[in-house]
User: Fold this.
Amino acid sequence: TLAPTRAGKGVGTVIPNLLMAERPVLVIDPKGENARIAGNARRRFGPVHVLDPFEVTGVTSAAYNPLDRLSPDSLDLGEDAASLADALVMDPPDQVSEAHWNEEAKAILGGLIMFCVCHEEPGRRSLATVREYLTLPPDRLRALLELMQESDAAHGLIARAANRFLGKADREAASVLSNAQRHTHFLDSPRIAKCMARSDFHFSELRHGMTSVFLVLPPNRLDAYSRWLRLLVSQALQDIARDAEAAQTPGMALSGAQGGSEAPPPDRRALPPALFLLDEFAALGRLEAVERAMGLMAGYGLQLWPILQDMSQLNALYGKRAGTFVANAGVQQVFGVNDLETAQWLSKMIGQETTGFQTQSYKPGDALSMTQNVTGRDLLTPDEIMQVHPDNQLLRVQGRPTAIARKLRYYADPEFKGLYQPQDQ
Assistant:
C-alpha cells in the first residue's frame, strides 16, 4: 500500500482488515488506535496481545523477551544471536563508511548476547543485561571480556567474539564499542526494558491459532525506539520460519522457550496465512529478514503487507532491490498520491492503450486530405493519477487490469457496524 499521511490508510485499509479478517495477524500500530478500535473485535477470533510500552492504548501491555527463545544448548545459538544483533544495528543506506563499524558492533553484540544466555540466571537473561555489559566501566568491561575468553559455551563462539574485540587496537575497539552503545541506547528506557523482561506469548503461535499481536509505538517515539519494532518483527519472522521448519522435519522438536514457558504444541488444522500489517514500514529501516520474507515466507504460511507513504521511501531503503517488493506483491493499493515519482511509476505500471486520431491537410486548389493515425497513450497519466478523487483508490491485482475502486470507511460502511469500539473524535 502506498498512501501519504492522513490519506485514510487506517480507516480504509488497516482497521477494516482487523475487524473482518479471520486469520492470525501481527500489526504495527503507530498511534495505538488500531488496538483501541479493533482489539475487542479480534478477541472473537482468538488471543490478543498488545505490546504497548508507552501505554497509549490504555490497556496493560504484554511483554516479549527475545532472549527467552534462545537455548544455551542449541546448535543455532550463534545464528539466533546474530539475528538479534542484525536487528539491533541499523545499516544506513548508501553509507559504506559505516559498514565496518556496524559489522564489528554486531560481532561484539552477538558475543555478549550468547554470554548472557549461557551464563546468567534466568531472571537476568534479557537485552537490558546486554546493555548493562556495554556500559560497564572500562576495567570491569575488560574483566568481562576476559571471562568470555575463558568460556567454552556456545561451541566456543563466545570466546571467539571476545578474542576478536580484544585483538583490536585501542582506538578501533573504542569506536566499535561506541557504535554498539549507540545502537542499543533505546534499551536504557525503563518502559522498553519492562516490555522485554519476560515473554507472555511466542510469535510461533501465529502459525497455530487465530492470535493477534499489536506492536504499539507512538509516532513521536519512532525515531528513538524504531529498533524495538525492528527487533520484534525480525524475531516474529524467524520464529515462524523456525517453527515451520521444525514441523516439516520428522522427529524435530519445536524450539522451546527458556524461563519456564513452553512453545505451543503443533496444531494440524488448516489455518489461513498469518498477515503482517506493517504500517510505517519505512520506520523499520532496511531489514534483510523482511526482504527475504517477501519472496520466501509464503511457503511458511505468512503474508507481508508493507504500508508506505510513497515509492521514494522504498527506493531509499532498498535501492534497486525495491523491485523485490513490487514483484512479489499480489495486490498493490495506491491512493492520495501527491508526489510525482510515485505517480510516474504507477503510470508506467498501469500501461498504455491504443488510441486513434485524425488529421486534415489542405493545399489551395487541392481537395481536403484526411489522415488516420494510431498512437499509444498512458491509461492514466501522472497528473491524472494525482487528481484521483480522495474517495477512490487504485488497485493492481496480479493478472488483471488496474481498477479504480471506492475506499472503505469502517465507521460509515454497514458491514462493520457493531464490530468496533467507537472513539472520541
Q: What stands out?
A: The chain is about 40% helix and 15% strand.
